[in-house]
Predict the 3D structure of the following.
Amino acid sequence: MKEMIAVQEELGNPASLKKIFQDYCWEVDGLKSYELEQRFYTYAQSLFDQQQRMFNCTQ
């Protein structure tokens, strides 16, 4: 959970996202790291979009 909060805070900074990816994600079951990374970024972006929607609803 802590890492996802970090992701949300760092979404505007690709270098930080890359670092978070390297810290918390690695190649699993032979999955190409590139593919895994793309999934990670997609997941991070969807989290960010959810946060934005929630925030916009409370305005």
Q: What stands out?
A: DSSP finds three helices and no strands in the chain. The radius of gyration is 13 Å.
